Hints:
Structural class: mainly beta
Helix content: under 10%
Number of strands: 63
Distance between the termini: 22 Å
Keywords: Signal
Strand content: 35-45%
Protein name: Gliding motility-associated C-terminal domain-containing protein
Largest sheet: 11 strands, mixed
InterPro entries: Ig-like_fold, PKD_dom, PKD_dom_sf, T9SS_type_B
Number of helices: 2
Number of domains: 7
Mean pLDDT: 89
Oligomer: single chain
Domain PKD: 67-118
Radius of gyration: 42 Å
Signal peptide: 1-25
Amino acid sequence: MRFVYPIGLLCLLLGAVLLPTVSHATHVRAGEITTKRISTTSLTYKVTFTAYFDELGGKDASTQANAYTICFGDGTTAEVKRDSRRFINGNTSSVDSYTTTHTYPGPGAYTISVTVVNRNKGTINLPPPDQSQEIAFFVSTTILINGSLLTNSTPVMLNPPLDSGRVGQKFCHNPAAFDADGDSLAYRLSVPKTSSATSICLGRNIPAYQDPTRYSTSSEAGGTPTFTINPITGELCWDAPGQAGQYNFAFIIEEWRNGVLIGEITRDMQIIVVDSPNKRPIIQPIPDLCAEAGTLITQPVTATDPDGNRVIITGFGGVFNVGADGAALAPGELISPAYARLINGGLTQAQPATATFSWQTSCVHVRQAPYDVTFKVTDVPPKPTPALVSFQTFRIQVVGPAIKNLTAKPTATANGRAIQLTWDAYTCSSPTTTITIYRKEGCQPDDLPKCVTGVPAGYTKIATVSSTATTYTDTTTLKRGVSYGYRLVAAFSDPNGGINGGVSLSSNKACLELPLLAPVITQVTVDSTNTTTGQITVRWTRPIGLNPGDLGAPYQYRLQRATGLTGTTYTTIATINTNLSPTAPDTLFVDKGNSTSILNTTANAYRYRLEFYYTAANGTLTQLDVTDAASSVRLAATPANRQIVLSWQANTPWSNDGKIHDVYRSRSGPNGPFNKIREVSVTTSPYSFTDDGSDTFTADGNTSRILSADSSYCYRVMTRGQYTDTQLSRLGPLTNYSQILCATPADTTKPCPPVLQVDSLNCASLSPESLCDQSSLTNKLAWTPGTGPTCDPNIASYKIYYGRYRTDTLGVLTSVDAPTQKYDHSGLSTVAGCYYVTAVSKRGLESTPSNKVCVDACPSFVLPNVFTPNGDGKNDVFQPLHCPRFVSNVSFVVYNRWGAKLYETSGPTLAWDGKSLDGVDLPTGLYYYQATVSYAMLDRNSPPQIIKGWVQILREGVSAR
């Protein structure tokens, strides 16, 4: 039945949705608070409230805004007079500054705030818009004070928030925030605030604030409208306004240092959206740039306009050292000179227009954070069409130049192990700059990505020297016969405690190889695995670089052992005298331990080194050198599902990386036989291999078979290695065996997921009287077990999961023991809900969920069009016909023919007795109603059914039969 509103009621409803007329701003349009610590001996800060006033409709109010009260967050306040008023945008707006100083009592977090008593009138998204001037304007900034921050300052916003938007076009604003300390900035949306009713120093969200997308119909491209802010660049965009008028919104800039939030600043801003055919201009994308300090940067900026209008290109950013009002700041206020320029910026040009960004960088501009430069293009349409803008952010990373012409040469010291480095004087030397020296073994080529500062991976810091130094002698643990690569970087510190600076690009690499005079270990292999009688064979070379007659004979090797891969507590286990004869058996030792030092190769790895002695002129044995230590290979195992994961490592002076290692397996226990099952290509230690039972090396027989959780398997690994030094690389490949290790796989096979069915109501077959006599409802579930070659068929039970709504996370309802494959979910007030079932194995492992089945309700609610509330017990109340189904709530309103509300109720049932809101019997006649019926459906937010109709009240002894 179609509901027709009476004329009086229709006029009333239309009047309620009429929109107010939009007026222009009359006073404050935007504002924020910034701070700067101005003393290193006291906690004294300069605090500035920057306000943007409308100088057209609000000129008188702007002129009278001579002072505001600033709350400093420590319980004190001060009335601060205006110290600057600059007119911008053709004198249509002004930038007003209120600055004072304040000394805080001690470290802590402080929230500074300002209240402007009245916002301007006509702000659409602060309803009612004709009363928005009754809402106070409130902004705040929070700072963290501690001794380590020194002269920290909040970021400043250099782009005034005074641009216009157009209906149907994407509007963007970039505050061009700059942090002089180089702190990281992050952006997030907020809600405009007003003062608390009890204090102008306390802010709260404006309760009536509405997200701008409420006034959008679609995005510029026809999609869903959005209102977002880029958390990195700070570009705030509304895509797209759908209604002309005046809007307010706010965002917060967070200030981070070394992962710690040290402050946040809020900007509350306003835009005017117009309905105009003008299209916004376009600025061409600009790629980010990396430049060494001292580089002259010249970057063209090009803009066009779809309407062919002339355009103006302007730039904002700390590199210009210019404030939001366009006036030059004090020298070094934001950065040290030289400052950037935008050649042809601010000029009206025929499009395509071009301006040139020019900046002569220097050493003082080096810092870890990039410099953000925001370019804005503004079109110049014919009057009175409002101008539109577009933005493009350009990031510049200024890095310290590399140290030039690094060289390395051997030099003489007391033990003959030294390398002297020299380099050119550094171009960015300063008292706060140092040079860090890095070293690594080997001279392989390094990967140096463009504009990445510091040294590549693999280098270790060995020293720091003054930035004026040009030489350094390295004597730190140099090994003969090893090649060393060196790189240098300059490190810049921030004297103000900020994070400006960082490190320079890397110098060139200098390489040098020291001559070899000591023996070299070539093998540490486990022969026998046992807790008390283990055995390890150790082999080494004679001193490669030692010629007959170089030193006095006889010579002596002293073999030492330590426990563990990285053990350093060495004990001499063998002393071998030699004359270095090529035929002497003096380069091998089989370590079997002894009664005081057993060799437990089952539990431990062992590490070995050799001391080499010669006979001095006075006849005493004198140590010449000590070899680099080498450990045995240590094997470990981790059970997996019908698999065993092996991992192994060794601590050796040679490299086992990039080689083929052999894996051996025994199915008969630690005494073998062992079969080679895989040749594994390894990369970096620790190395790994997963045994699934297969055998890909069949020359010694194929032992492939699935691993069982009821069996144990034993393994050993043979590694291959090679010295990376060119003098020693010919000694390879160096082969070593690990100890023998036995392990048992796990079994984590799960059952397959069942297949679920749920009996559901056939809504089309239900009569109006269906379900009337049922006080509770039941959903019948049945399922069949899943099958598959990789599933465990041994099922112990099933778990039933249930969720009342489609979007709910389903929780365990109950469980039933196998082989039961059905369940009746009874006692329900509605059949709506979702189910899935899982199978649980006898090992206690649960399958993945079955298919998810959702059941929905069949709603029914039918109202009559006449009732007789005459007290005869027949048809005395207005209630649903037949049996209403799955009703959770009914909101019911009755009107007379002139649109006046006579009766209203809400609840799970409807039974109107024909009386008005004040309990008076309504006379015989025709009445209109609206019933809003909510049902217990599957979707939590399913829309209610709106029923509009009429009903006839009959009295005077008449009854319906």
